[in-house]
UniProtKB/TrEMBL annotation, chain A:
Belongs to the bacterial solute-binding protein 1 family. CDD domains: PBP2_UgpB. GO terms for biological process: maltodextrin transmembrane transport; maltose transport. It comes from Streptomyces olivochromogenes. The keyword Isomerase does not apply. This is Sugar ABC transporter substrate-binding protein.
Automatic annotation (TrEMBL), chain B:
This is Sugar ABC transporter permease. The chain crosses the membrane at residues 37-64, 104-125, 137-157, 184-208, 242-263, 294-314. The keyword Lipid metabolism does not apply. Belongs to the binding-protein-dependent transport system permease family. The lineage of its organism: Bacteria, Bacillati, Actinomycetota, Actinomycetes, Kitasatosporales. It holds the Pfam family BPD_transp_1. One of its GO terms (cellular component) is plasma membrane. It comes from Streptomyces olivochromogenes.
Length: 449, 321
């Protein structure tokens, strides 16, 4: 074989070997950098913001301050991109892997551990971290932190409280919403009704397998109210098999077995049509209920989450989102500056009293029926005349416990949900559920990735 | 393509080696090479398509199945050997039981129901007038999206839904079809079988048409009853169509997850969780692409083994695909 032949053979072989990698490389390099404007000197920097505010009022609410920024800032422009919440994490993954990650991300705080571990989120610079610590409640700061480091500005914060149907409670002779678990159980049994075929007419206490928010959210809220936590302080194991955890699962199990709860029913629909007397859910629901229930909304009341015994310290669950900066962003300073402007700079609040000021983000969130972790802003915006049902959620900002966001938190939450469902449907006893959750969740949160 | 290569055949007959002339050989090798290059150029788009959309993803999945990767940074792929595979079958893992078991039961149940139903319906249709109309009616579920089918059936199964309404009207108690772990999987299997019965009917009616009428005439002359005719003539001669339906339905069943995600999201607990849904969650929700890819290869092996077993069984009966 002549040298020329050998070269030819090698190049063919190399061609075959390098074709896939060349395709990958060219694909990756072709879309390696996030869009940063034209790159010509003097042209503005364009920051991209990826969120789930994809449609309707949410999209408009975010676009308003972004348009205001773009109108007043020549050098740095912000462009919003949005996908549905169900596609948000996947979009983060795909765009990041393709080198197309947005400069500013708006993740659900549950994913923070996963995103930090994957090197996607940039820690907040010290001056921003200080501003966040000073301006927001503990739950919001905790949700935006991983391992004590703050990674972004908290935006939407949801706390959990007890929704109740005043009419159903009144008809059952219950004069006021329950304050303790004993009162909750009593009211649930008194209000529950079934027909002769076993169909649920009214659930006393709405336990629903509809989604994570109803299945896990309400369980974790009750767990927090009982003084327990889902994950240990170091984030390496679960703490659900504590007396508080056992008490919560016992309570739920009793409610199902005694017929006060029917986990098969979609509680979001059933409550609206007066088929659920009480349910634990987050603050965002008030907006939907108001819009969909019409004049029947007057029957809806919200009370702080009942505690196991009278006099126990209040606690509940808080979940939320935050705005953080991508490690791949070429303009982190500008991105943080935009976030500071959006989240901390005070401007006059249209819906509040004359002269009152709040941050743009606080106005944005309240305009879509949500809250931020800035209690002061929320009191300003939710002053006289606002929906009294929002007050318990606002008060809960002071004592809410953030949802655990350690690496593997999403999977731990799914495992918890499966085991809760297995308990409610009689597949497992309380003891078996606690043992299985311990084994499965420990394995997940402790594994070194 | 065939024409371009045709002269090569002629050339081989008068091979230069046969005459011993090296010069002639070189002269003739050049056009052959040119033809080969042209052939490869024609093949290139197809090869490129397969490389990009089949070989590359397959290789990448294989790499991921032996790595840890969170899905964000291609530079962070961390090789872990066979750990992902062993983790799937470690004590306490839910992959083998109930997930893989559910997958097999789901596929098996779907095939059994769809096959039985479609054989019966296809036989009935074969004896009816307006066969095209009946075939179209039974084929309608195929042109409906899985999401729509899943949602409609979900409402029908609900405690106050149509199915429970009928049960109540008959004086029976309500059944929590999708909420009871004992009934959830069979309930979804029924929907999947209903949704896939149309294709099976279409194939089986075509199969029935290909059975020569003379067999039935001979059977009638011999005095064979309808049941004997069905067992001794129709079913054995329908075997090629049955094999095709059986294999394709089983493969669809093993890989199915859209209907389950719409109707039960895998619940209650893991009662209706199947391998494809678990893979999707591991990759896209939990960011554990290694486990998801390992599960995909395990499912591939299961699909391969099941298909080979089906082929073997039918071949033993003297049938070839």
């Amino acid at each position: 074989m002549t040298p020329s032949h050998r070269t030819g053979a090698l190049s063919r072989r190399h061609f075959a070997l390098t074709l896939p990698s060349a395709l990958l490389t060219s694909g990756a390099s072709g879309c390696a950098a996030p869009y940063q404007g034209t790159g010509r000197p003097g042209d503005p920097i364009v920051l991209t913001l990826l969120s789930h505010y994809a449609s309707g009022t949410l999209k408009e609410a975010l676009q308003r301050p972004v348009d205001e920024w773009n109108a007043t800032h020549d050098r740095v422009r912000v462009r919003t991109k949005a996908v549905e919440f169900t596609d948000l994490l996947t979009t983060f993954m795909v765009r990041q892997a393709a080198g197309q990650g947005a400069d500013i991300l708006h993740p659900y705080c549950l994913w923070n551990g996963q995103l930090v571990q994957a090197g996607v989120l940039r820690p907040a610079p010290s001056e921003h971290a200080e501003e966040i610590r000073r301006g927001y409640g503990g739950a919001a700061v905790g949700a935006s932190s991983v391992g004590g480091t703050i990674y972004g500005y908290p935006t939407e914060v949801q706390t959990y409280a007890l929704y109740y149907n005043k009419r159903l409670l009144r008809e059952a002779g219950v004069e006021r919403p329950p304050r303790t678990w004993h009162e909750l159980e009593e009211a649930a049994y008194r209000t529950a009704r079934r027909d002769r075929y076993g169909n649920t007419l009214v659930q006393g206490f709405g336990l629903s397998t509809y989604d994570d928010s109803t299945t896990v959210g309400q369980t974790l809220a009750l767990l927090n109210a009982a003084g327990g936590t889902f994950v240990s302080a170091d984030g390496r194991s679960t703490a659900i098999d504590s007396p508080a955890g056992r008490a919560v699962l016992d309570l739920e199990h009793r409610l199902v077995v005694k017929g006060a709860s029917a986990p098969g029913v979609n509680v979001y629909k059933a409550f609206q049509s007066g088929q659920v007397a009480m349910v634990v859910s987050a603050g965002w629901w008030t907006g939907s209920l108001k819009a969909e229930m019409g004049k029947d909304y007057r029957d809806v009341g919200v009370a702080p989450l009942p505690v196991p015994e009278a006099g126990d310290k209040r606690a509940t669950l808080s979940t939320g989102f935050m705005l953080g900066v991508n490690t791949a962003s070429e303009h982190p300073r500008e991105a943080w500056e935009f976030l500071r402007w959006l989240n901390t700079e005070k401007v006059s609040a249209k819906s509040a009293n004359r002269g009152a000021t709040t941050t743009r983000m606080s106005s944005l969130q309240v305009s879509v029926g949500s809250l931020t972790g800035r209690a002061e802003d929320m009191r300003t915006l939710l002053g006289e005349g606002s929906d009294p049902n929002l007050r318990p959620f606002l008060d809960a900002l002071a004592y809410a416990v953030p949802e655990p966001n350690v690496p593997g938190a999403q999977q731990a939450k799914s495992l918890l949900r499966k085991n809760i469902e297995a308990l409610w449907t009689g597949q497992q006893s309380v003891d078996e559920s606690l043992r299985t959750i311990r084994r499965q969740v420990d394995q997940e949160v402790s594994r070194s990735w | 393509m065939v024409n371009a290569l045709a002269p090569e055949t002629t050339e081989r007959v008068h091979s230069p080696r046969a005459t011993g002339s090296t010069v002639d050989g070189r002269r003739r090798t050049r056009p052959r090479r040119r033809q080969a290059v042209v052939a490869y150029l024609f093949l290139a788009p197809t090869l490129l398509f397969f490389a990009v959309f089949l070989v590359l993803p397959l290789g990448f999945a294989l790499l991921l199945s032996m790595s840890r990767w969170a899905g964000f940074d291609l530079g962070e792929i961390d090789p872990v050997g066979l750990d992902n595979f062993t983790d799937l079958f470690v004590d306490g893992s839910t992959f083998l039981t109930p997930i893989l078991t559910n997958t097999l039961l789901f596929a098996l149940g779907t095939v059994a129901l769809a096959l039985t139903g479609s054989v019966l319906v296809a036989n009935c249709i074969d004896k009816l007038r307006f066969q095209g109309l009946w075939r179209t009616l039974y084929f309608l579920p195929i042109v409906t999206t899985v999401v729509a089918i899943g949602n409609v059936w979900k409402y029908m199964y609900e405690p106050g839904g149509l199915v429970n309404g009928v049960l109540n009207a008959l004086g029976l108690g309500s059944v929590a079809f999708l909420q009871d772990p004992d009934t959830a999987l069979p309930s979804v299997v029924v929907v999947q079988a209903w949704a896939s019965v149309g294709t099976a009917i279409l194939i089986l009616t075509a199969g029935l048409k290909s059975i020569p009428e003379s067999y039935y005439e001979a059977a009638a002359l011999d005095g064979a009853g309808p049941i004997t005719v069905f067992w001794k003539i129709t079913l054995p001669l329908l075997r090629p169509s049955l094999l095709f339906v059986c294999i394709t339905q089983f493969l669809t069943g093993l890989q199915s997850f859209a209907l389950i995600i719409v109707m039960t999201k895998g619940g209650p607990g893991d009662a209706t969780n199947v391998a494809a849904l678990e893979m999707y969650r591991q990759a896209f929700s939990y960011g554990d692409w290694g486990t998801a890819s390992a599960a995909a290869f395990v499912l591939f092996v299961v699909v391969l083994v099941v298909t080979l077993v089906q082929l073997w069984i039918f071949r033993r009966k003297g049938e070839d695909t």
